[in-house]
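[job 4417] fold queue: 2 targets
>>> target A
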Amino acid sequence: MEPFTLALVALQLLTAVLSGIHLDRRHRHDANALRRSLRVVAPALLASSLLPLVPLLAFHASAVLWGLWGAGYLTAALVYAAADSTRELPPDQSAPAHSTS
């Protein structure tokens, strides 16, 4: 059962990293789109973080798996916190203005 647990923890880490990349690249300058994406990404981060808990608890997983799960959980929390903080920032003033001529 340990390979299954490892696969779930790897999925958790992959989800957190891909969510962070998605939120950073696609919505860096658009706060409204970031709000919408955050509503979609937040449940995915939560589900991917809670899913490995059942096999971790049920099958007495090793300390390495618990450590990886903790790292993934913290990564997911940081991704959400960074996106939530970015949402509250004013628009970037250093971006070049579009010229109409």
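>>> target B
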Amino acid sequence: MRSHRGTVTGLTPNAPATGGLRCWAGETAFAHRGLRRAASRPSSETGPLVVEGTVDALDGRAWMFRAECLSGDEARLLGDWLLRAAKGRVELLERLTFPALSFTLDEHEYGQPRLIVGFSQDTAPSWLGEERVLTFDYPVTLDLTPESLEAAAVDWERELRAD
């Protein structure tokens, strides 16, 4: 499957259970939106977070998704992995996988992080129709800077602690 260069914005767990995971914007930026749990959900619960996202593969196609794809523990694991990746403590091509999302670290230039985000099943492109539920790791490539990746990871972990 070919990798699509693109943007991922508003990647946010917010639906009935929560409110904000991360926002990837552009090939060179990695920003965030807040993570909040709904008032009706206990802060100690580690059940699924509902993640919303908008993905633009920059090939004329874009999609939005809304799915339960990370537990609280997985969200913390992702934050730790992103921070280690920003600091150069993750091996190139190391992969972090969850049932509906995957993250692979590479470089687009020496020392410049590239994240390849894989979207599976409920997070995969909606135009796949019935094939969507059979899709694993539809790839979108994000070329970043270490600073933008670290800033997003730090904000992510801060919000998880505040939750």
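[job 4417] complete. Note on B: The chain has a mean pLDDT of 74.
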